[in-house]
């Protein structure tokens, strides 16, 4: 796909986004597992922000292949068509820049300058299965940042950017442009765009029920027959919802 062809075919509704903001990645994984989707959790990636962050947005993808010494020199960054730079300057507001670096964190995929630029451009988050540079600065940012680890070497030493807005693999999970990513303290879940609205609705119901379950468990109720609920527990929950 051309570096300038960034058409988004479908966008997530504001109500679905609000529902996913409330849902945990743990709950979302369970919902997707019930639908037969097992490989939805990006492996080896965690948030670097010091404070609590919740990330919800659609994927804007960037794919790398292994670097080659005669091409990936420092001079490569002078090229205005360098895919990494183009991605940073064209990712639409509210989308998440997702990097496929083949799970190689021995080099960075961004540093403080590019991350700050993304934050200024109101990018909804940054996800990479490689490292990031300037991690101390990145940790203080409000934009959600999820990566494998801190890594000082520049991306040119290991990663050669080639494609924008194509299907990629990030942390062993397939990510298609427009897919919905949700990130929290546990990590990042990928939700296929085609089912994201339905998943968001189910997640709201699931989170409400689990809040109820936690209230019961805190007051001494055993989990057997409560979670998952028996017919009696379901009836009791229905009465609880109606009373509220």
CATH class of the largest domain: Alpha Beta
CATH architecture of the largest domain: 3-Layer(bba) Sandwich
Main beta-sheet strand count, sense and barrel state: 8 strands, mixed
Instruction: Return the domain count.
Output: 2
CATH topology of the largest domain: Glucose Oxidase, domain 1
Mean pLDDT: 95
Low-confidence stretches: 1-7
> Overall 3D geometry?
elongated
Strand tally is 12
N- and C-termini, Cα separation: 51 Å
In percent, how much strand structure appears in the residues? 15-25%
Secondary-structure-derived class: alpha/beta
CATH homologous group name of the largest domain: Ribonuclease E inhibitor RraA/RraA-like
**Approximate helicity band:** 25-40%
Structure description:
The protein is an alpha/beta fold. The protein folds into two domains: 38-191, Glucose Oxidase, domain 1 (3-Layer(bba) Sandwich), CATH 3.50.30; 198-243, no CATH class. Helices cover 32% and strands 22% of the residues. It has seven helices and twelve strands. The strands form three sheets. Strands 1, 2, 3, 4, 6, 8, 11 and 12 form an eight-stranded mixed beta sheet that branches. Strands 5-7 form a two-stranded parallel ribbon. The chain has a two-stranded antiparallel ribbon with strand order 9-10.
Quick rundown:
The protein is an alpha/beta fold and 244 residues long.
């Amino acid at each position: 796909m051309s570096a300038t062809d960034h058409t988004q075919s479908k966008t997530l509704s504001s109500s679905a986004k609000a529902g996913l903001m409330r849902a945990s990645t743990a709950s979302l994984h369970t919902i997707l597992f019930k639908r037969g989707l097992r490989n939805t959790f990006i492996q080896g990636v965690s948030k670097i922000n010091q404070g609590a962050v919740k990330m919800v947005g659609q994927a804007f993808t960037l794919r790398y292949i292994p670097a080659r010494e005669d091409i990936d020199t420092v001079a490569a960054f002078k090229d205005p068509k360098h895919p990494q730079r183009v991605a940073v300057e064209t990712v639409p507001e509210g989308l998440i820049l997702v990097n496929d670096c083949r799970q190689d964190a021995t080099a960075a995929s961004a540093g403080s300058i590019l991350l700050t630029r993304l934050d200024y451009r109101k990018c909804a988050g940054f996800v990479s299965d490689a490292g990031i540079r300037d991690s101390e600065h990145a940790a203080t940012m409000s934009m959600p940042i999820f990566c494998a680890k801190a890594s000082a070497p520049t991306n040119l030493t290991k990663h050669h950017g080639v494609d924008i807005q194509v299907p990629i693999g990030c942390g062993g999970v397939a990510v298609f442009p427009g897919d919905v990513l949700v990130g929290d303290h546990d990590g990042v879940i990928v939700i296929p765009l085609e089912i994201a609205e339905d998943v968001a609705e189910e997640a709201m119901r699931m989170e409400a029920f689990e809040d109820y379950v936690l209230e019961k468990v805190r007051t001494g109720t055993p989990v057997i027959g409560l979670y998952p609920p028996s017919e009696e527990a379901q009836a009791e929950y229905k009465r609880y919802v109606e009373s509220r």
